[in-house]
Amino acid sequence: MSDEAARLAAFRKDIAAWIDEACPASLRGRALGEDSIVWGGKGWAFAHADQKDWFDAAVAKGMTAPMWPTEVGGAGLTRPEEKIYREEMARLNAPPPLESFGLWMLGPALLHFGTPEQKAMHLPPVVRGEIRWCQGYSEPGAGSDLANVQTRAEDMGDHWLVNGQKIWTSYADKADWIFALVRTDRSAPKHKGISFMLIDMASEGVTTRPIRLISGKSPFCETFFDNVKVPKDYGAGGSAIVGELNRGWDVAKYLLTHEREMIGGGARGLLGGRSMGEFIGSLEESVAQDPVIRAEAMALEVDSLAFALTMERYKDRAEGGKGVGDASAMLKYYGTELNKRRYELLMSASGSAGVEWDGPHGSLAPEWLRTKANSIEGGTSEVMLDILSKRVLGMPSS
Amino acid sequence: MSDEAARLAAFRKDIAAWIDEACPASLRGRALGEDSIVWGGKGWAFAHADQKDWFDAAVAKGMTAPMWPTEVGGAGLTRPEEKIYREEMARLNAPPPLESFGLWMLGPALLHFGTPEQKAMHLPPVVRGEIRWCQGYSEPGAGSDLANVQTRAEDMGDHWLVNGQKIWTSYADKADWIFALVRTDRSAPKHKGISFMLIDMASEGVTTRPIRLISGKSPFCETFFDNVKVPKDYGAGGSAIVGELNRGWDVAKYLLTHEREMIGGGARGLLGGRSMGEFIGSLEESVAQDPVIRAEAMALEVDSLAFALTMERYKDRAEGGKGVGDASAMLKYYGTELNKRRYELLMSASGSAGVEWDGPHGSLAPEWLRTKANSIEGGTSEVMLDILSKRVLGMPSS
Amino acid sequence: MSLSLLETEDETMLRDAARGWLADNAPVAALRKMRDAGQAFDTGLWREMAAMGWSGVLVPESSGGAGMGHRAAGILAEEMGAVLAASPYLSSAVIAATALQGASEKLTAIAGGELVYALAVDEGTKHAPERARLHADRIGNGFRLSGTKVFVAEGASADRVLVLARTSGAAGDALGLTLFDIDAGRAGLSRTAKATVDSRDHAELRLEGVEATGEDVVGDVDNAMAVLAPALRAGQAGVAAEMLGVAGGAAAMTLGYLKERKQFDRTIGSFQALQHRAAHLWSELEVTASAVAHAGRMLDADPEAAEMAVSLAKARATKTADLAVREGVQMHGGIGMTDAYDIGFYMKRARVAAEWLGDYGYHAAKVAAARGF
Amino acid sequence: MSLSLLETEDETMLRDAARGWLADNAPVAALRKMRDAGQAFDTGLWREMAAMGWSGVLVPESSGGAGMGHRAAGILAEEMGAVLAASPYLSSAVIAATALQGASEKLTAIAGGELVYALAVDEGTKHAPERARLHADRIGNGFRLSGTKVFVAEGASADRVLVLARTSGAAGDALGLTLFDIDAGRAGLSRTAKATVDSRDHAELRLEGVEATGEDVVGDVDNAMAVLAPALRAGQAGVAAEMLGVAGGAAAMTLGYLKERKQFDRTIGSFQALQHRAAHLWSELEVTASAVAHAGRMLDADPEAAEMAVSLAKARATKTADLAVREGVQMHGGIGMTDAYDIGFYMKRARVAAEWLGDYGYHAAKVAAARGF
Fold this sequence. Notes:
Chain A is α+β, with helices and mostly antiparallel strands. Chain A is 44% helix and 13% strand. Chain C folds into 3 domains: 9-116, Acyl-CoA dehydrogenase/oxidase, N-terminal domain (Butyryl-Coa Dehydrogenase, subunit A, domain 1), CATH 1.10.540; 119-223, Butyryl-CoA Dehydrogenase, subunit A, domain 2 (Beta Barrel), CATH 2.40.110; 226-370, Butyryl-CoA Dehydrogenase, subunit A, domain 3, CATH 1.20.140.
């Protein structure tokens, strides 16, 4: 065994012991549902003491953001360590202590584009679950054309005056802050003149309205900015703009790549750790014997396992410094289409029990409908295929 | 029963009696293979006396071209009669007495665009199987862009001087005449300046070379025209040009529609009258039990039956005077893709026995490879989908 | 069979009339309104349909019906599907009217729209009549029925229910089943409406010692299939036609959107990748239309021989509706995901109809069996 | 298992070296030439591969091999697949070398390229080792083998053949099978080369009273699976890697064509419908590449636990190669249908490799079984 392997083996033992001790048994092995996620934020209330204990322990050890630097409150793990951490978390059936758009999206943006002041101001509260962020990209009517930003921020000397409307803002009604694309130069071409701005949701003039989906209630909102004053500088030296002024599209693109990698693999749902076959095996016997259902279940199992390996391979590649870049569009495309197929089969296998809003399989039906947005949100499958063909395969433009 | 129904019932009885008498038992129920087709032509030799007897009887009754007018030697059947004729042919397992590009392609073109002289000169020899035709459309490098005709015919007063090259000419090496697209006006836009020309393959300067396909030997040829003199008038008053000069694209388009309807339904092959399931049932037991194979066999059976009904519906529609027009692209697209799927499944079901060039399933492997051309020849599937989306669905051009 | 699948002039007139009336009276907005009000269908609307003869589409003129036959019934179902019009049409006018052939008084009431029927056949999550276990025990001169039925369309609102019960044999036997015609208010029968995604009425029925007499038996005891099989075929052909309409309605909405929506400064319908998918979808619709028309023709011409044709239609329609609604939602993008837009209603109805009276695998297997495997 | 699927520097060097050498020495043109000459592989070329250590890729250095392991073996197979290089690599260097672990002299000869092995396992049209009926009857101290084997890769040209025979039990039993190592020239063994579409060597072997001794038994009598199963896994992973190469080679040829071919005055690669299909194909290739790399890693790290990983790779590679060659021929249009162009060779090899050592359904079912259904 190499030194490195020995070191990692020791790390595995230690981290497993820590998880085992810090994560209360009551949290283990539960199906991960919307109601068991810890999102944090000013308005956050833990469901019970065990959940708070696990969260506190993780914050103390930096394990809410395992790969972030220790200076901002992370644990500073290397990629192989982080992989082992996730493996042990899965093995011990421990839920993530904290999830948030701050961890997934704002953090990576600030770590890459932020000033030291911005990092110091915004990252520790994210790690500690004190501030909950939401993302303001899409606008009504713009659809896949994300750079078609109409929300404008006018330069008023010491502050920006923001007016406009965002749509598909997840949890805007529960978030403390928003990172949003705003147009700061209306005379520049479409992709120029956009800035990446951090706005306090408590500001006067910010309102939200939830969006009802075909699957029922949703975390998505419309968010309105009506003469919102955003200070150019948030006191501690942190500018409201991340990256260069009018170069927000670069930040957005970087984050989109990041988001794609995440969405592709982020299928959460009914099956939990169970295989498709176990689910089908739990149904009426005739279902498992139906060749149409069985053939598709087998194909899904094969494709899902191979895709999971691909997610790992791409994460390793990204960590190796080679980056993943536009190829992340593949993860987004493949992962979301796979998840839609998975839910179509679950519905088909469940028969008439599956079509109830709240039948014997719980939230299966709304989850199924919700998956239909997977291949739309964060860039449609069609946009992903365009990116792959043009930027990865080098196909000519028409 | 209505008068019409009674008349058709009587027709069914009569035609069945005729087939039963005229078609020798030795020809019935054989698998239709390349070697059992009667193509006709100057160089034709019947395989045996029974084949000739059936052919002669059909010619005498006009049944080689059942729906053509009696003046040119057809039987003048109505569409309902012709449908009954085909049903009875199928029921009695009788092979078509004659098949040819003259019947399928040239005939419809002349019936629609030809002068009385052209019809009188060319159609009777087609009906009687005396002249075998081939089709000269494609040119090297043009691919799907059929209007990209480079073969040119120069006006030399009393004759045309033809130079150029055609490709994918089926049976050019066995045909007596060719109908070809030639450019008669080189200064006109691409789709103008093309003429539809009838050329005697025995003319000096015409040569052919067979093309070997991935499936092995093929009926396809390259056809070369080297200073070929084509008389402007073939004696009996028949012009060498069908339709107007420089308007050959209209004739070609008309025929392409016709061809598409035919190709879509013209899948001929191993299965003959057998269902996919019967074929699979004749293999090792484990094959029929494989859910992957069984699910696809079921789906193919469903789609094939529904498509066969659709072919009939479209033929009825065409006969009803409503025409089918661009929608024929659907038949071509669907029928050829279905046939490719069918052969993929046959290969998969046959396992290692299927991969031999001449194994226990005879010509299965070359037929499988040959089907890959179905969705290319006569217009690719991509061109068909373009036609459907633009001309049938009215989608805007980019 | 040289049945032409082309529509006759009468059929085209029927289709045009139905389409016009439905557009005015039962657009998707009507379904949305009923859903928001927690209502499965509009009784007033059903009376109007009855007045047009739709509820008597399969009832002979001698019993006060319109006697139009199965192809016509399919055309009506397809047009209803295209706008997602909710009514007890299939349960009552198509299925029950077929099962109750000869029962002139009941047929007259069905045709008049006064009597709404439901069919209670399945007990598991998949369609399987022969697996019925709900038992009817002989007590004196009559029967006592106990057991549970699920996924009963119009089950919560129907006036009467045709209940498939086992009078002998074991689950899995096609024989030993008997069809009972039971008043929905009879003692011992309880009904639980289920909230299904299509906002229609699908109920669970519990029978606890429900009493029935020989008068209530439809057809012969122990031989339900003689009357049930034709009724199921009629219903399956009807739901196939409805699903063809659902597919066509979703496709039309989507094609319209493609021609109108702009992104990246272009009409999205000009993107070739979407064009090819739209053309493929249209091709599938055309092929399915043939199968649906054929099922109707076969039921009219030779109902005993129509089983394969009906299964072919249901299998094709299930697959095609599935494709149409998936492409529909995806091509609409974000707006298609919002409840405010109509396309989602098509997806929901397609899913429920896919399961009703046999799913894709059930019917594809029937086709395969008819073709010898 | 936190095995990284990324290539190590050594692996990348191996791949680059193999790719360069194969491009120079074994392009598709070489296969075409051999096909036209009626030859299955080029002995001279195989010796050169041996000289580079490829024939000893799995043979320990102590026996004169290169001992590079299964991931490396897969990289070589993939590169060979990309140019359709024909050789006894999988049969001899991968499968036989795994089955004969410990038999140092034979391994040395395999590694040297002097001894070419074939594996004769199947008797029906589908891969099913446990259904072997070819029987080895005990005669005195030895055995007498009779029966027929089909689809034996390198069967007509190999020097020796590993023959799976039944020494007890009945067809279908995994036990009661014994693996024999037989000289191809032994009396009673006749070989018939079959003309398969991939122009490679696939033969039918007839054994009529072929005599064998205990010396010829590989592993233990009645327990062939102990040595055969690891060999099959190695071969299946190898053919999966080859098929990934076939898929990648066909895709590369097709992408190149899309960028160069003009129609309707446009480069056809600018048509969005083709772009999306190309991007989808590339996505499938990437996902399959992970499965293939994983199978190699698992065989190296924990061969006994590698069964699911191997079946996953073969299932994925079969589907992906199928897609790549179908799209390849279609996107090439007419020229792709001509024998003069290379893409057809990829389609033919993909079809044969799809069937060898278990088809898609066989391996997908293994994955399902490993996942509990």
